[in-house]
Amino acid sequence: MLEIIKSPWHWSVAGVLIGLTVPILLLIGNKNFGISSSLRHICAACIPTKIPFFNYDWKNEIWNLFFVGGVLIGGFIGNFLLGNPDNISISPDTMKDLQAFGISDFKGLMPTDLFSWDNLFTLKGLVFFVLGGFLVGFGTRWAGGCTSGHSIMGLSSLQLPSLIATICFMVGGILMTHYGLPLIFDLIK
Amino acid sequence: MKLDDKNICDAPNESKVKSENNLKYLLVGAIFGIVFVKAEIVSWFRIQEMFRFQSFHMYGVIGTAVVVGIISVYILKKFNIKTFSGEEIVIAKKPNNKGVIYGGLIFGMGWAITGACPGPLFAQIGSGFGVITITLLSAILGTFTYGAFKDKLPH
User: Which of A33, A71, A79, A174 to mutate to test the interface with B (most CBs of B within 10 A)?
Assistant: First the structure.
């Protein structure tokens, strides 16, 4: 049993469990599923400001911060207690494309060529941590939600803006992957 | 079930119950985080595969989740199911403005760079990539910047 849990899970298992999060959160506390809101609550809770966008009763939304705290703990359990003992198996085509960018570590969930403390004060760090993170936080709030709030919760309740948002997420990602990343990797090599 | 069009954010607390035990959300979040790691959704590689159309994995995950979500919400609505504490279920109405397009494109670009949407950011930190706390801090700064310039941006 533990061996089955430790091997990587099939996409359908993950899809069903993620989809079920929508009714579970509604049933246990009338909560709408969405994660990017947590970033706004952190601003409202931690940064003293008069900006109206952050002046609301964040304590009423504190469930969302418990939820993302849980995600962090789940990440720890999933990797350190139930971790996959083998290397990640990614598509050979993707591996070839990424090798051309100079990526050489294909063992774990993330390439340490990019995502390590050593890169913090380099151009790599500036792009992959600072710029990337900024775009995620700025974009999700402007769009009014992220993959969970729009693509899962919004689509589950058949809302048109969420379909438009999801299409834009994909278009932005595809453009960055095929046109932006080659330029970025040229720059940081 | 009803729609709420005056919600505070995209994942509002629609409950009127005042004192509740928030640990249940920690538990649901933890299960969610385990799924994120075990199905490798937090992997930068899997996001690259998706945007390069070189694997079905992420499309399978998101597609299945949406289908299960649609069926669940349909059942809750059809049978007028109440929450466990007896409240009417309320679903937040999404904003319908141009910000969805501009913000959506910008987030998509960030997703391709970091390999993470906001949820996986937390799971990546938990799974040992401590440096992602910098990405998270930058995302918080991004959200703050949006809040500061909200009125000057097209919506």
Answer: A71
